[in-house]
Amino acid sequence: MPRRIAAASLGVALAVVSAPAQDLTGTWAGGTNATGRWLFAVVRISSEASALRGSIELAGAQAAGVPVEEIVLDGGRVRFRARTPLGVMAFEGSLRDDVLDGTVAGGAPDARLHLVRVAEPPASQADAAVGSYELGRNQHLLLTYRAFGLLTGIVLERRGNRELVRRAFYAIPSGPDRYVTSGSIVQAVRRDETLALERATDGAVTGMRWTGSNAPASRARRVSGPRQLAVGFDGPGGRIAGTLFLPDAPGPHPGVVLVGGSGPTGRDANVLRAREFLRLGHAVLMWDKRGVGETDGSYFTAGFDDLAGDAVGALAFLRARPEIDASRVGMTGHSQGGWIAPLAAVRAERPPAWLVITSGGPIPPAEQEAWRAATQARGAGGSDAEAEAAEAFMRRKWDYAFTGGDWEEYLAEAMRARGAPWGEIVNPVFVQDSLGWAFMRSLRDFDPMDAPVRLTMPVLVLFGDKDDEQPVDLSRAGWEEAFRRSGNAHHRIVTIPGGFHALWLGDGNPRPLVSSPTDIIREWLAGAGF
């Protein structure tokens, strides 16, 4: 019988450890409702020349690597400030029993921040934990790397011929082979939903035990599945951290470099897309963006050219791996990746063998965002006048980013937008020297047609006709013009009926996974000789 240790709950893993009192250095994880809704938060604090420095990441709030300033620890009381794109947030609270808890000024009324001290477990623990688990009847769990020992988990359920996404979570190591889930600590400092790895006598992980506060403990059995490797490679801006998925079959394998969408996304944001290419027998490489997770650099100062350079580095790294057939390595870009991947493809000394673009097109980013604002405002039940107002503010926001101008005038418009029904759609920026302006400003002279007209490899472009983020008709027209100008006859453009921006995710709660994009890619690759 294999020796069992205990298993876990649906969550992402971070390790909670004891540390000397009056010490803020290290990694802290938890949540805040400073934006008006609870978000997962990670704060990292270090000591340099007797001064405390730090950064904060707010999942879903366009904040990663945001500097934490004026950190003060005085007799158990803690203060610090962070200049996020949503405004200056000032924390004041207490440190007790490895928990930071207090209020946040500058955000939503009555905002709070709860953080639990975490420690980075040995890399071997995450290496052993990642993989596939059978949770019970028709359900399975995929655990994958996030950063600094954290894991991301996705629970999937099979219903007939459909697969549904039941839950996604983060896990926080609370000791050797033990984790507490993000759901336990985001809204309150609780540690009552846990998972623990179970190992055989030879040390191999055979499963996990999942324990919740109001449910009996359950066990999940380890099952075979794609291999996952935590990898690192050099890019123009420094070291890049990523995950390489390898099919559960003999190699060498064809491979694909997976360029993600917008925002400060880590490698774990692309797991579902990676699964689809694994189904096609491809190895998949994905990575943390600059300044996100364990990758060097700054998210806010990295423009499209910088991100394309990182993708070129990823392409070279994947081709050099012994598990990979270097002649059959392609690249795919989703959403923002629809701008980045073509840039990387034409810049690479050895271009990718093929290119697949999903939900992205050669139109200016400011135009895409203006269209998105109007479309989503209308889709949320807004009137034509409200949709026009949302579009007008989005254009005003980009105009300020590109040209500057009267800050007080812009800020007054931003404050009015925050109170509008469409305020969350347009994401007003309230800090004049916010790092977010730098990224927008870097796109002022970006020519979205420059790279597409130089593509010579086979290209497949996929859209969904229910996309409310990317203007499909304008994007299709842009691709058709690019292929006409380049003379590239090896292309196909497909609009999938009923498809949303995410393409592989359908409508509903829980959201179903959709197979049609994968079927189209499989058929196209075969027809192109890959």
Characterize the structure shown.
Helices cover 25% and strands 37% of the residues. With 530 residues, it is of the alpha+beta class. It has 3 domains: 1-218, no CATH class; 227-363 and 448-527, Alpha/Beta hydrolase fold, catalytic domain (Rossmann fold, 3-Layer(aba) Sandwich); 365-441, no CATH class. The strands form 3 sheets. Strands 2-3-4-5-6-7-8-9 form an 8-stranded antiparallel beta barrel. A hairpin with a 2-residue loop joins β3 (39-48) and β4. The radius of gyration is 23 Å and the shape is globular. The model is unreliable at 1-21 (pLDDT under 50).
Secondary structure: number of strands? 26
Q: Enumerate the spans where pLDDT stays under 50 for 5 or more consecutive residues.
A: 1-21
Q: Within the largest sheet, what's the order of strands?
A: 2-3-4-5-6-7-8-9
Report the sheet with the most strands, covering strand number, pairing sense and barrel closure. 8 strands, antiparallel, barrel
Helical residues, percent: 10-25%
How many helices? 12
Radius of gyration: 23 Å
Report the mean per-residue pLDDT as an integer: 89
Overall shape: it is globular
Domain unit count:
3
Amino-to-carboxy terminus distance: 45 Å
> In terms of structural class, how would the helical and strand content be classed?
alpha+beta
Estimate what percentage of residues fall within beta strands. Answer: 35-45%
